[in-house]
TrEMBL record:
UniProt cross-references to Pfam families, sorted A to Z: EII-Sor
Organism: Clostridium perfringens
Subcellular location: Cell membrane
Record lineage: Bacteria, Bacillati, Bacillota, Clostridia, Eubacteriales
UniProt keyword terms in alphabetical order: Cell membrane, Membrane, Phosphotransferase system, Sugar transport, Transmembrane, Transmembrane helix, Transport
Coiled coil segments of this chain: none
Major subcellular site: membrane
Record protein name field: PTS sugar transporter subunit IIC
């Protein structure tokens, strides 16, 4: 299954909209606590990729793993947004190529762990805008405060959330297909991934 550039861009935009600091859907209110739930992203990705049923099935399975994930003060053991958009997309592609849903769960969980690198880098980068915003306050520069508090941070979100998601989803689709071809569904690797994916909700 291939993902078109347009589909990858749409998924990237959704990843930005559902990010913790994304302003499009009021950050945590409509973005993080709604769009970044794998259950919701599964439906949206299913619509984009043309297979709503598989999207929802993969999204529900991944949601179970992250059901109790809490991110107080931005502390994040796993990046739910990465799991919801990169993980679910690659999971849907894998299932369409013959993998099990449990394997898709294992893939999404691994993506969530790696995604924390992007999240932490984004938090560090946003501190640059924070310092500029404080300097604007001291000068009484309201335009500078607005730009550095809202616009600058959204540039960071787009560059570190939407762009990587779109690129990974676009190029990752063919990689996922090749991996599934290399490791048939009855191979030890795929059975191990399925077993791991089945255990993860209990962990």
């Amino acid at each position: 299954m291939e993902v078109s550039i347009f589909q990858a861009i749409l998924i990237g935009i959704l990843a930005y909209a559902g990010s913790l600091s994304g302003a499009l859907f009021l950050g945590t209110l409509g973005g993080w606590y709604v769009l970044s739930r794998p259950l919701v992203s599964g439906l949206l990705i299913g619509l984009i990729l043309g297979d709503i049923t598989t999207g929802i099935l993969v999204g529900v399975a991944i949601q179970v793993v992250f059901i109790a994930l809490v991110t107080p003060g931005g502390a994040m053991p796993q990046d739910l947004n990465a799991a919801a958009y990169i993980g679910v997309t690659l999971g849907v592609i894998s299932v369409k190529s013959g993998a099990t849903i449990e394997s898709a769960v294992a893939i999404a969980t691994a993506v969530g762990v790696v995604g924390t690198i992007f999240h932490n880098f984004m938090m560090i980068t946003n501190s640059f805008w924070n310092h500029r915003a404080l300097a604007s306050v001291e000068k009484g520069d309201t335009k500078g405060l607005f730009f550095n508090s809202l616009i600058g941070t959204q540039i960071t979100q787009i560059l570190l959330r939407a762009v990587p998601t779109a690129i990974i989803v676009y190029f990752g689709a063919s990689v996922a297909d090749k991996i599934i071809t290399m490791f048939p569904i009855d191979s030890f690797t795929m059975r191990a991934l399925s077993a791991l994916g089945g255990l993860l909700p209990a962990v």
